[in-house]
Specification:
The complex is a heterodimer. By secondary structure, chain A is mainly alpha-helical. Chain A contains 15 helices and 4 strands. Chain B has 18 helices and 12 strands. Classes of the chains: A mainly alpha, B alpha/beta. At the A-B interface, β2, β3, α2 and α14 of A face α3, α4, β4, α16 and α18 of B.
């Protein structure tokens, strides 16, 4: 396609992207460098049905004056990025000096909210993505080998997890692992421990969320792989059968190289999706044991009675940076292949 | 003839009921939490809407909607039904208007004690009181020869006895869901120990002390006697546990008693359920509970006409003797003419015992948020009480600095 027509094709989508994705990201970036103005508090007499007492409130007149002068807030530079709830530079260096062993240092750092969330997010990403790729590929291969008569219903059944809304899917599993649910209760009997709770154990909660993630995302990988499998040329396959290649050898030397670009694509999308893991944490009410970066943003915006815009903006920007870092190797590789192909 | 008479009478009384409001214009849009008493109140307000436009949103997510919705100009809602804690963010951001003039003009039936005033400015009109107190199963306690517990130490002993008797696996329940609910339990227990959240006259945190540690240890003891999934249980979830007969002693909101004691569910459990005073803790004499009021506030970013119409409708409800007579078991109404019934015991006892109101400080929301996420690891047994409290203070300080309180 000539560059000119590509440009006109891309223009509507590009404009929408700038308007709805680009500008909000820029605005978030700006917001992350600002904190709230110093609060002006005044002593007042507060009365309610339970009696009167001296208390403090925010002085609205003084505050609105400061706000009118600088509506964005107080410039904070990277202050929010390095505070304890984010990169915690000060605390980390303090722990480094204090700690006697690396293990102690790691456990102390892992106790800071941002790193705690980062550890879960990365663990989730690193385990779920390969599992999704592998499982999706195996399902696609097996379904591709099955008689055409029953393939339709089977494909439908396989993509069901993707059709079910994430929240509903996680709630179903959530009730099953309840101390009185089918899985939770049976686990208690199996382990002979009446106080065993999947929901209160950190490890078990992580495992549950990861299993849920694999279950939910595999159909996507399957659908794409299945479509790609349809394009695998038959001649080399038949030739290899004549040459006596086993099934495994055929998959390894013919099918995989053929669908390789698709594998990269699915890996990219899965990584991006998994890095933003959020719904299962809400669905499983797992805030206590598992926090992800997206959950931190949500927490800053809605769980507090005071909304922390600066904090949420800083975490958002760091999530974007995190995704770029994770995707960088794959992107660079794709770019190189693209150049050599030309 | 008879029919005509009935219609006439109906019209007469119909107009009579609306006569005291006679709202001619304006529009009313209410945002409120979702529990039976608030629904009754809003229905009562609707009775006298006159020709005003009337809309209402009942939502359990009201806290998340309120600030953004009232920040818009004109704001989405003209009335926000708030409580001691949820009024603070509205006042911090200057989103609600004083209503002294309206009270003077239209607030005839409202008692002075219902007014929430800041230096004399009326910011809200309260209509009901709420607190968290104990619910007990009298049949289970009697069977095991246990007296009704008055302190949390007695609650622990009683629950241990019930568990040892093999009667119930998880005899105690409270809303320990990580986040707001868990933090609320800490607030109650810490106040019961006589703790103060901030160093006097400042926004500096003050929870990492002996009282804080005692509070956490008590919460842990109670958690060990609860369903092991306690970190995911909110008020609704423990209500279900209670109705299923799995629990013998529970700490729950007074306002939830209405649906707990309705005709649905096992009649035997309902009959044996008794509402009692909140417990004290650690030898203290004030209950480990906080007093709450629910009241209505008027949005600032809304026309005066809307505010007037809204106030008149809400004031009608907040002073309606008929409503409190009809719905006397739904809440502890602060409205004149309320006769307390058996379901009001918890709140009334709490007031008598000198319970403290939930601290209405501008920075309290940040402390509440920090508590909700940082004490979880202690309850899971992954962290010492001191470390958890240190984390609470550190998390709070960071947020308070960003918000300009420190």
């Amino acid at each position: 396609m000539p560059n000119r027509s590509f440009f006109w094709f891309f223009l509507p989508a590009g404009l929408a992207m700038i308007l709805f994705i680009g500008l909000p990201i820029i605005s978030t970036g700006i917001q992350s460098f600002y904190a709230q103005h110093d609060q002006v508090l005044v002593k007042v007499k507060k009365c309610d049905p339970f009696g009167c007492k001296e208390s403090v409130v925010v002085d609205q007149e003084a505050t609105s004056k400061i706000r009118d002068e600088k509506p964005l807030g107080k410039f904070n530079g990277f202050g929010t990025y390095v505070d304890r709830n984010h990169l915690a530079v000060e605390q980390v260096s303090e722990f480094w000096n204090e700690s006697k062993s690396t293990g102690e240092f790691i456990s102390k750092v892992g106790n800071l909210p941002f790193y705690k969330a980062l550890v879960f997010t990365l663990t989730y990403c690193v385990i779920v993505t390969p599992c999704v790729l592998l499982l999706g590929f195996i399902i696609a291969l097996s379904l591709n080998a099955i008689s055409r008569k029953i393939r339709g219903p089977l494909i439908f059944g396989t993509i069901l997890p993707m059709i079910v809304t994430p929240l509903v899917g996680s709630l179903v599993l959530f009730w099953m692992i309840d101390a009185e649910g089918i899985i939770g209760a049976n686990l208690q009997i199996l382990m002979n421990d009446p106080y065993l709770s999947v929901k209160s154990s950190k490890t078990l909660t992580w495992i549950t969320i990861i299993i849920y993630g694999v279950w939910h995302h595999s159909p996507f990988a399957f659908v794409v792989f299945y479509a790609a499998l349809q394009t695998v040329p038959q001649e080399p396959l038949e030739a290899s059968i004549i040459d006596g290649a086993s099934r495994f050898q055929r998959v390894k030397h013919i099918v995989l190289p053929h669908i390789y670009p698709v594998v990269t694509f699915v890996a990219l999308i899965s990584l991006m999706d998994n890095f933003r893991v959020f719904e299962p944490i809400i669905g499983f009410s797992a805030e206590g044991s598992a926090q992800s970066l997206s959950w931190l943003i949500y927490d800053n915006l809605v769980n507090e009675e005071v909304i922390l815009f600066g904090s949420a903006a800083a975490t958002s920007i760091m999530t974007i940076i995190g995704i770029s870092i994770i995707l960088a190797p794959v992107l660079i590789r794709t770019w190189r292949e693209f150049r050599t192909n030309r | 003839m008879k029919k005509i008479l009935i219609v006439l009478l109906f019209l007469l009384f119909g107009t009579y009921a609306n006569a005291d409001c006679n709202i001619k214009s304006g529009s009313i849009n209410i945002l409120a939490n979702d529990f039976p008493a608030l629904r009754t109140l809003v229905e009562t307000a609707k009775e006298c809407k006159g020709s005003a436009d009337f809309k209402v949103t009942h939502s359990a997510e009201h806290n998340k909607i309120a600030v953004p919705a009232l920040t818009a100009n004109p704001s989405e809602f003209s009335v926000r039904v708030a409580a001691n804690s949820s009024i603070v963010p509205l006042m911090n951001a200057d989103l609600i208007r004083p209503m002294n003039d309206l009270v003077k003009k239209y607030g005839k039936g409202i008692q002075d004690s219902q007014l929430i005033t800041i230096d004399g400015k009326v910011m809200a009109v309260a209509f009901m009181a709420n607190t968290q107190h104990l619910y007990v199963r009298t049949d289970v306690l009697k069977e095991n020869g246990i007296a009704i517990p008055k302190t949390y130490e007695e609650v622990v002993a009683a629950a241990e006895k019930i568990r040892a008797a093999g009667k119930m696996k998880y005899p105690y329940a409270a809303a320990y869901k990580a986040g707001w609910n868990l933090a609320e339990e800490f607030v109650n227990m810490y106040i019961g120990h006589g703790g103060e959240f901030f160093k006097a006259g400042t926004a500096e945190p003050n929870v990492n002390n002996a009282k804080g540690v005692a509070t956490l240890n008590m919460l842990k003891k109670l958690a060990d006697l609860s369903n092991p999934d306690y970190l995911t249980h909110d008020s609704e979830a423990i209500k279900v546990e209670w109705e299923a007969g799995n629990v013998a002693i529970m700490t729950l909101w007074a306002s939830r008693s209405g649906t707990l004691l309705d005709d649905e569910g096992d009649a035997k459990i309902t009959a044996a359920t008794k509402l009692v005073a909140p417990a004290t803790v650690g030898g203290g004499n004030i209950p480990a509970a906080t007093l709450w009021w629910d009241g209505f506030t008027l949005a600032k970013n809304r026309s005066d006409a809307d505010a007037e119409a809204s106030f008149r409708a809400m004031a009608h409800a907040a002073s309606s003797k008929e409503m409190v007579a009809k719905a006397s078991d739904q809440a502890v109404w602060l409205v004149e003419g309320f006769v307390p019934g058996p379901k009001s015991v918890g709140v009334i006892e709490a007031v008598k015992m000198g319970a403290k109101p939930y601290p209405m400080l501008p920075q309290m929301g940040l402390m509440h948020g920090a508590l909700g996420s940082e004490i979880v690891e202690f309850l899971q047994g992954n962290e010492s009480a001191e470390q958890a409290l240190k984390d609470v203070e550190a998390a709070y300080m960071t947020k308070a600095k960003e918000q300009g309180f420190l």
